[in-house]
Amino acid sequence: MNKLDFNPDELEFRREMEAALAQVRSAAGPCPDPDRLMAVVSGVPMESADAIREHIALCPVCEQLSRDLAAYEFPGASAAEDRRIRARWRRSVVSGGAATLWNWFWRPAPIAAVFAILTIVTVFAIRKPLIVQPSREIAVVHPTPAPVAYALVLQKAVIKVSPDSVLAYRGDAQDGQAFLKDLAGALEPYRGDNYAEAARRLEALASKYPFAAAPAYYLGVSQLFLNQNDAAVESLLTAQRHPDDTLRDDISWYLAVAYERAGRIADARREAESLCGKSGDYQHRACSARDQLKQR
Q: Is residue 156 a part of any domain in this protein?
């Protein structure tokens, strides 16, 4: 389906939908394939299950999609169909291939149904934990645990140009321009939510510019979205060792997020306590997180 298939009103609706989904992705990360999503909520064990459950807790689109798909009465599968489904699923898990939720979403569907999901995205309301009955076509191995409720919410970091990082390479104007060009190239996949490629590029950039905080900082944030929490802690500690007034509080916040996800609650509480004592963008959130962490 392309833009020629839409009338002007539908194109305007699609633009609004894309903006709303972009807002969701900035908070929850990219949406998983619907098949993987339903497999996880049905209890099928897989390597990315924890990441998908955390995404569902933050993404109202995927939460509603899970409910709608679970409520649909699927016809029973024959023995031969069951064998084909299982064989295809094993190949999918090995290859790691998956279609995007966006491609699935734009298959022909009643406009009223699409509008209902847009309303859910726009409101972005906090919902109760998702409870879904297992699909008949997927064998349930064990009950799905409830998503982990973190005190520090992971959201995509805004890209900032840090003068301190540029000044670290101020040998001449050409050096500063080279650093900015390299940083922009490394952050390109980050802008598109491709955190695996962003992490690969930023790791190389952090080695090339060891005295700049920005590469290690955005590397740590990318690793958080990849659930590489211990690695994120190390990257953010590296960034924190380089003085950078522009990114100082940002680094501290995401370090607290990484500590909590790595199970280092006392360290997370210490970082939150530090931010709570400062005026700034993170003060209110840090104070709230500190109070929740004190109860653990």
A: no
Q: Which amino acid appears at position 11 of this protein?
A: L
Contact in structure between 43 and 140 (CB atoms under 8 Å): yes
Question: What Å distances lie between residue 207 and 86, 160, 179, 215, CA to CA?
Answer: 44, 20, 12, 9
Query: Model confidence over 107-148: pLDDT tens digits?
Result: 444 444 444 454 444 444 444 444 444 544 555 555 555 456
pLDDT (tens digit per residue) in 140-172: 555 555 456 788 989 999 988 666 555 555 554
Residue 249 is part of which domain span?
A: 163-294
What's this model's pTM, rounded to 2 decimal places? 0.50
Q: Take residue 56 and report the two structure tokens written for it.
A: 């569902």
CA dihedral 259→261→262→266, nearest 10 degrees, is 40
> Scanning the structure block, which residue is given the tokens 């491709």?
194
Total number of domains in the chain: 2
Does residue 151 sit within a domain? no
| Residue among 217, 214, 227 nearest 263 (CA) | 227
